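The methods section describes the discrete structure representation at length, but only in general terms. An entry of this sort, consisting of the sequence and the corresponding backbone structure tokens, reads as follows.
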Amino acid sequence: MTLRATPRPAEQLSPGVAPSARRRATGALALVWPALLVVAVLLVGWQISVTLGDVRPQILPSPLRVVEQGWAQRAVIGRNALATLQVTLVGFALSLTVSALVAVGVDFSPWLRRALVPLLVGSQTLPIVAIAPLMIIWFGFGVLPKVLVVTLTTFFPIALGLIEGFASADRDGARLLASMGAGRWRMFRYLRLPAALPRFFTALRIGVTYAVVGAIFAEYVGATEGLGIYMALQKNSFRTDLVLAAVAVTAALSIALFLLTYLLERLVCPWLGATRPDAR
């Protein structure tokens, strides 16, 4: 009698791989579907109220009109979105660099902590509404004033997150390293820097959402291209539908950058993902 090899399912050939992928997909869907459901209900209610109320599009266009007109202007909106994204990324990169340098300096020097932390808190009382036009006056309509507005908007949460993260390092661990002869730099590298990572990524998520808003606002007061100046021009032409289409693109950019921080966190410190409450 001849025995034939029975083909095994893919799950049996590589146990754990396909079920794991399915579990991740199911978990991701379980996380996002409540928000998607709420958004769908709001859009349907918006569409029905505009249709039944016969509201003029200049006052409140329907979601379908916003999508239709936004798609018709996709090339222009895409070009302006790219300009906004460029300003956002450059300003946020500068903010990250300055924040890290200030936070490390404050962590190494108690004098700097006493000197700079009150100034950092005080910087948040400066109204960006007043500062942004001054940046345009001082530095013109180029990229620099918009980059500086993004940096000012996002600097505080990232710097404060790092400063408090460094300070949250375990004291017993510090005493253990000190007993082993570790200097300040080794203690910073092996204890204080890893301890700051959870707060850093939380601050990063807050800062990156502020970054897009900061770039939009800087463009709104003065620019040659970008979603901010595009919204201002369409508002002056009473094209509410195109303003809302640009707002939707802005929200999509913010959400995409927000989600990228989770990907970065997973790459840099994958153990943090399992400790979050929504991952349990």
The radius of gyration is 25 Å. The chain has eleven helices and no strands. Residues 184-221 form the longest helix (38 residues). The CA atoms of residues 201 and 262 lie 8 Å apart.
